[in-house]
């Protein structure tokens, strides 16, 4: 048995001793931070510490004589390898005969036993599901204990970095103006207080940014809003002199981040409290709920009003976003040139190609960080939508086939996201057919004309139709919203075709920006994705209503080496030529290197 497996067994043994001490029969550890962020910092990697599996999705459940880890199909092989010999059993989610965590606990826990978990890292929806299912066996939940705190002696610290303030002129609206809008929204639902838990909403509202979540420029925080107070719960060490002076000036009262639960427990709400259950962890929800019951006030579960305000960009934000996207597109264009002119001549792997692009982006003015870890996938690896190359595990990029690169940056002025699939050598006729249909779908979506009131579900078929016409589909949404100097994924709007019971949809409004990213993924062969970001704009108004459309924000060449006009309708050819003319006109002035400029002219020629 490897020494690593002995270590895991020892850790589990110490955890079980703590469980027995606190009367906990089963203990659950998911993959999340206190705010359900997209990326969890090392402090939160409790599940990994106790079972060895380090994939991005999984939940570990431990009993006195049982340990099971649930994960999805992306990670079955990895989890099996990493947990070999640890005594932790793998539960392959969604496979026939495999119980869900709730089902397993219901079947195996005895009446009157206790399930424990840190309620700050479990969403309210999951917590309520467990509570409902297990109540039939009188199983109680203990949700205020983070047992890792007592076992994991060399645990990394909670993320804590200096916060910084964005000037109002960069944001287009001051904190005071945004707060006034939020209070108006509170009045509409008769709420006297509002608890805000979502990090990017808090940062957007306050015009404060930070570095507490990888690739998301946010701070760990809660905000409590009344008609005359704004309290921001943050780690004291993060508050710089500049941030403190700003908070004093604009009327933000600062309290310690860890005081949020005791603050709620001691609060004297003088009316109903607005909160968003989707964005509130289970411990916060239960604490809030108990206090509301005690004071006989109602909890108003509605979408955070900041969500839509944040999604509809103001004129300043849009102006800055357009400029940032142009510079980012020019840098990507230079990278595509670099790949095409160096493949087969210098040693190039998926990882070194990503490093090259990341370093090029970092040269741009106002660069803050990557908006997500760059996906660089060669040939068959690109068929895996969640593929991630590492320094030690990256395919060599040879002068044949294609390289898919999905990347983006956060700058003072915007957050970008773009995918191009680059031809690096000979490709088959089938690949050209798939590539051409993908491009046609992206351009067709960007050219959509639609009436005000449409949601992304009304429009998604624009992107899929060329692929559906050849009997192909892709297993992900076509588009997501993007933050302003914030998270690369944000709602409430999206482009998706599938109907889901009870899932709310958001109407597309002028000022929203959304990705447009159809693709083809053929296992073991190739993967193609072409992604532009598009802005919702007004087109015209008449007796039938207001017509909206999209403008491109991304201006980077489509690879003509993979285009076969036999698979294009005349209108698609026209759209590609029109787009490429805009790419050359807008991007060439930003490129200094004459060789790249000359290449771009040829790469965007009319076909």
Automatic annotation (TrEMBL):
GO terms for molecular function: metal ion binding; metalloaminopeptidase activity. Residues 320-537 form the Peptidase M24 domain. CDD domains: APP (cd01085). Keywords: Hydrolase, Metal-binding. InterPro entries: Creatin/AminoP/Spt16_N, Creatinase/aminopeptidase-like, Creatinase_N, Pept_M24, Pept_M24B, Peptidase_M24_C, X-Pro_aminopeptidase_P. Residues 546-607 form the Peptidase M24 C-terminal domain. One of its GO terms (cellular component) is cytoplasm. The keyword Metal-binding applies. It comes from the Bacteria. Residues 11-138 form the Creatinase N-terminal domain. Transmembrane segments: none annotated. The keyword Transit peptide does not apply. Belongs to the peptidase M24B family. This is Metallopeptidase M24 family.
């Amino acid at each position: 048995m490897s020494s690593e497996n002995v270590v895991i067994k020892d850790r589990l043994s110490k955890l079980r001793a703590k469980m027995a001490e606190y009367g906990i029969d089963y203990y659950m550890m998911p993959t999340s931070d206190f705010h359900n962020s997209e990326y969890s910092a090392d402090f939160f990697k409790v599940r990994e510490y106790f079972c060895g599996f380090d994939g991005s999705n999984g939940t570990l459940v431990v009993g006195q004589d049982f340990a099971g880890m649930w994960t999805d199909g992306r990670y079955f092989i990895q989890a099996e390898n990493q947990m070999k010999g640890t005594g932790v059993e793998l539960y392959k989610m969604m496979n026939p005969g495999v119980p869900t965590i709730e089902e397993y606990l219901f079947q195996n826990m005895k009446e009157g036993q206790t399930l424990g978990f840190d309620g700050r890292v479990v969403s309210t929806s999951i917590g309520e599901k467990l509570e409902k299912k297990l109540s039939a066996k009188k199983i109680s939940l203990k949700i205020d204990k983070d047992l890792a705190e007592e076992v994991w002696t060399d645990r990394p610290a909670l993320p804590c970095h200096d916060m910084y303030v964005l000037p109002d002129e960069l944001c287009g609206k001051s904190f005071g103006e945004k707060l006034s809008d939020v209070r108006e929204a509170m009045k509409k639902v008769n709420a006297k207080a509002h608890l805000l838990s979502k990090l990017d909403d808090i940062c957007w509202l306050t015009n404060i940014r930070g570095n507490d979540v990888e690739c998301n420029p946010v701070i760990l925080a809660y905000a409590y809003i009344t008609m005359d107070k704004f309290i921001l719960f943050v780690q004291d060490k993060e508050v710089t002199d500049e941030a403190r002076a700003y908070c004093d000036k604009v009327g933000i009262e600062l309290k310690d981040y860890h005081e949020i639960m005791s603050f709620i427990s001691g609060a004297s709400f003088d009316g109903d409290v607005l909160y968003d259950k989707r964005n509130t962890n289970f411990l916060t929800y239960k604490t809030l709920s108990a206090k509301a019951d005690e004071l006989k006030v109602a909890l108003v579960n509605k979408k955070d009003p900041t969500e839509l305000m944040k999604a509809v960009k103001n004129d300043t934000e849009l102006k800055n976003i357009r400029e940032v996207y142009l510079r980012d597109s020019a840098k990507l264009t230079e990278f595509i040139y670099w790949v095409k002119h160096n493949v087969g001549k210098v040693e190039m792997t998926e990882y070194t190609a990503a490093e090259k692009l990341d370093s090029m982006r970092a040269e741009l003015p106002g660069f803050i960080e990557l908006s997500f870890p760059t996906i660089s996938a060669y040939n068959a690896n690109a068929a895996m939508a969640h593929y991630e190359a590492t320094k030690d595990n990256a395919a060599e990029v040879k002068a044949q086939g294609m390289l898919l690169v999905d990347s983006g940056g956060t700058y003072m002025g915007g957050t970008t996201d773009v995918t191009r699939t680059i031809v690096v050598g000979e490709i088959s006729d089938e690949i050209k057919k798939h590539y051409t249909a993908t491009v046609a779908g992206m351009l067709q979506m960007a050219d959509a004309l639609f009436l005000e009131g449409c949601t992304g579900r009304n429009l998604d078929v624009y992107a899929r139709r060329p692929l559906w016409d050849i009997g192909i589909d892709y297993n992900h949404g076509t588009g997501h919203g993007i933050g302003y100097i914030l998270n690369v994924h944000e709602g409430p709007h999206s482009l998706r075709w599938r109907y889901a019971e009870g899932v709310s949809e958001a109407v597309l409004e002028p000022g929203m920006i959304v990705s447009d990213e159809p693709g083809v993924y053929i296992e073991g062969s190739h993967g193609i994705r072409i992604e532009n970001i598009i802005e919702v704009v007004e087109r015209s108004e008449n007796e039938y209503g207001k017509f909206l459309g999209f403008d491109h924000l991304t201006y980077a060449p489509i690879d003509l080496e993979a285009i076969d006009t036999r698979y294009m309708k005349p209108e698609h050819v026209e759209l590609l030529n029109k787009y490429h003319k805009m790419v050359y006109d807008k991007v060439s002035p930003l490129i200094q290197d004459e060789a790249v400029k000359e290449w771009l002219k040829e790469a965007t020629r009319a076909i």
